[in-house]
Amino acid sequence: MLDNLRKNELIKSDRVYEAMRKVDRGHFAPYSPYRDAPQSIGHGVTISAPHMHANAAQALEQHLQPGMSALDVGSGSGYLLAVFAHMVQPEGKVVGIEYIPELVEKSKDNLRKDPTHAEMLKDGRIMIIGGDGSLGWPEGAPYDAIHVGAAAPRMPTHLIDQLRPGTGKMFIPVGQYEQAIWEVTKDADGTVHKSKMYDVRYVPLHMQPEN
Ligand code: SAH
User: Which residues cross the membrane (predicted)?
Assistant: First the structure.
């Protein structure tokens, strides 16, 4: 499957390919893990399709360099946390935030199926927090990379605030009926750039009206 993604140029860099090769999707998706389609993981939620995981890791590649820190909002199955964690080794950190408590626990169990990921969870290189990720997780900010795995009804300003000036980049689906991936970067002087990339279909990101 990974070789197909590479052949079709969804995976462009060796770093993304190697990181995805180190993570067995079978630990995270109970049904048809190696089909290039989203799969149900319970609680009305899906693990994203492999090509979307590849797109996200590829878009954030320069922001997932060794030693960098990343936030995954709506971390769901935990799959992408493991991929990102491999990319930022050594010394980098990855934080997942997920608002369904059962999925926080399940994603930890999924990660523990591989001793390398179990170790990363234990020593804090991977953390999974329960809560509303549309607010980000200020305790771990700023982040070089922010990935959002659910479609936000509008651009969450808290997440932009938590991007590191100079290196920060966010990959986020935005929209309700029509959704598109947006890439948001922050210059060293704090200037924010937003670009709309391509149309997608994600489960909704829950967001309080006042945020
Ligand atoms: N990248 C994940 C995507 C899971 S689907 C994967 O491939 O497994 C999106 C996830 O976002 C769901 O688990 C959903 O519960 C979660 N979610 C939705 N709104 C959220 C919010 N405000 N804060 C945190 N998680 C949220």
Answer: none
